[in-house]
Specification:
With 547 residues, the protein is an alpha/beta fold. The protein has four domains: 85 residues, DNA polymerase, domain 1, CATH 1.10.150.110; 48 residues, no CATH class; 143 residues, Beta Polymerase, domain 2; 237 residues, Alpha-Beta Barrel (TIM Barrel), CATH 3.20.20.
């Protein structure tokens, strides 16, 4: 083991000892030793016991730990603490901004044991309820977790979009005689990415000079990769101007798309633009985001959904439960943005972690909605609820209370570790409940963080079709659930998709943009999007209450 490895494990032990409320003097000594060892120039592995004992800050217990580490890669005290700590809590200790004391509060008082659930708690503003976790701290923790996820090699499209556009603008300004275009997964608006791919006519030598100002990762013939200051990986391919359109076309589509087109390595491509290339292959031009090999060749004539087509914002939270802003603030902001209606869906009573609403609080909120509707007309707020789907599949209020809502979004938030059989039983029962109008985030996934519980999407969609239930495409870029790949089947069954931001603050409304990007990948059309309906059309849809 080198000095860095030894220092890291010593630091881990110090954090664990503090987490488990060990001897504070020993914790301090171990932390100091871990810090000092990083600065030693000579490898500890080459030192004698006498030399090790003479190093500053190395007492008897620290020396024993170092010797064990050099011989076995660990030491007994460390293993004992690891054994009594949940793996997810160990991972939390690696996140910047999270010291042992904060992790202790998160683990013991909040009941959170995984990095995935911690990220979800940050997103839903649950940390701010505890002393020492203000909005700023919560935001810093969320950013630190996201950075750690980036370090794993994958990142969300939403986080890469702005840095990618900035990079493209910088390159076009610096190399004005060259052409730069996005290609690959980024151009297809993939929901998660390993890299931002760019095709350019800039000669490799000039591009390499630019890359040296960043973190160079790889250089091969006609390919260059580097990371920017945010940790995002950029991959460049060079092309001659005469071959640019052909390479742009080949670099954008997925393998499945080219298989559907019948394009192979031997196919001779002709045309001066992508439009001409498609035409010469016998196909109409296909939008980049649709080039995935999932139904794009048989798409109809209906226009795909656009962000500007969305008329209402459904599934939003206020300070009545775990949202940051008041009902008035959420409503006025939606109206200011030009929307016709807003669906308020705070958490139901069983969601104690999110200050779920009691019957009394529901009635209080409904009274406030009535007052605001009278004031904000013609804008309208609909009285909704995000009802927990309980473990037996029932909804989280009695029928007489559920009947008071304009609509119900039914979602699973607890006991996510289910078999497919259990998950389907639970979800189907909720879908068949006559008060369910929208099925919320159907798998409970968090992209790059949590896979979600297993479901049979076709059976789920069939059940929604049979019961006239809309399916949510939860637009938060960490969810994007239902996955876009299942949209073609849903549309074929006549199931409306509702692009919902699940907003917990005013700024969360913008997430519908990312939901729209994902929806377009699945070929979602305007007429099959629930909240692309006008206010009158949406009211008419709600009036067709299920029985």
């Amino acid at each position: 083991m080198d000095n860095y490895d030894i220092s890291t494990l010593m630091g881990t032990y110090a954090k664990l000892a503090e987490l488990h409320e060990g001897n504070p003097f020993k914790v301090k000594a171990l932390s100091a030793a871990a810090f000092n060892i990083k600065k030693f120039k000579d490898p500890l592995l080459d030192m004698s016991d006498q030399a090790l004992a003479g190093l500053p800050g190395i007492g008897k217990s620290v020396l024993s730990a170092i010797k064990n580490l050099l011989q076995t890669g660990t030491f007994p005290e460390l293993e004992q603490l690891i054994a009594k700590t949940p793996p997810g809590v160990l991972e939390m200790l690696k996140v910047k901004r999270l010291g042992p004391k904060k992790v202790g509060v998160i683990w013991r008082k909040m009941g959170i044991e995984t990095i995935e659930d911690l990220l979800d708690a940050c997103r839903e503003n649950r940390l701010v309820e505890f002393p020492g976790f203000g909005l700023k701290t919560q935001h810093e923790i969320q950013q630190a977790i996201q950075f750690a996820l980036n370090a794993r090699g994958w990142f969300h499209y939403a986080r890469a979009e702005a840095p990618a556009n900035d990079m493209l603008q910088e390159l076009r300004q610096q190399f004005q005689a060259s052409r730069y275009e996005f290609t690959g997964d980024f151009r297809r608006n993939a929901i998660v990415l390993e890299s931002v791919d760019i095709l350019t006519t800039t000669p490799e030598a000039e591009l390499l000079a630019f890359a040296t100002t960043h973190q160079l990762e790889r250089q091969t013939e006609n390919e260059l990769k580097f990371r920017d200051a945010n940790g995002f990986l950029f991959a460049f391919e060079t092309a001659m101007a005469a071959d640019f359109e052909k390479k742009w076309f080949l670099g954008t589509g997925s393998a499945a798309h080219f298989e559907a087109l019948g394009v192979t390595a031997q196919t001779q491509l002709t045309g001066n633009s992508e439009i001409e290339i498609y035409r010469n292959l016998g196909f109409p031009y296909i939008l980049p985001e649709r080039r995935e090999g999932i139904g794009e060749l048989v798409a109809g004539d209906e226009p795909l959904i656009e962000f500007t087509d969305l008329k209402g914002i459904l599934h939003n939270h206020t300070s009545y439960s775990d949202g940051l802003h008041s009902l008035r603030e959420m409503a006025e902001h939606a109206k200011k943005l030009g929307y016709e209606y807003l669906g308020i869906c705070d958490h139901s009573r069983s969601a104690g972690y999110a200050q779920g609403l009691s019957n009394e609080r529901v009635l209080q909120q409904m009274q406030e909605i009535d007052l605001l509707n009278a004031e904000l007309v013609p804008f309208r707020i609909f009285k909704g609820i995000e009802s927990d789907i309980l473990s037996d599949g029932s909804l989280d209020f009695e029928p007489d209370m559920l009947d008071r809502f304009d609509f119900v979004v039914a979602s699973v938030h607890s006991t996510l570790n289910m078999t497919e059989e259990k998950a389907m039983q639970r979800l189907i029962k909720a879908i068949e409940n006559p008060y369910t109008r929208i099925l919320g985030h159907p798998t409970g996934r968090l992209l790059l963080v949590r896979k979600g519980y297993p479901v049979n999407h076709r059976y789920l969609i069939d059940a929604c079709a049979a019961n006239d239930v809309s399916i949510e495409l939860n637009a938060h870029p960490f969810r994007l659930d239902i996955d876009w790949t299942h949209i073609p089947y849903a549309m074929g069954k006549g199931v409306l998709i509702s692009i919902n931001p699940d907003a917990h603050e005013k700024e969360g409304y913008h997430d519908m943009y990312y939901g729209t990007l994902a929806a377009r990948k699945g070929g979602l059309t305007r007429n099959m999007t629930l909240n692309a309906k006008s206010l009158k059309e949406f009211e008419a849809w709600l009036s067709l209450k299920r029985t």
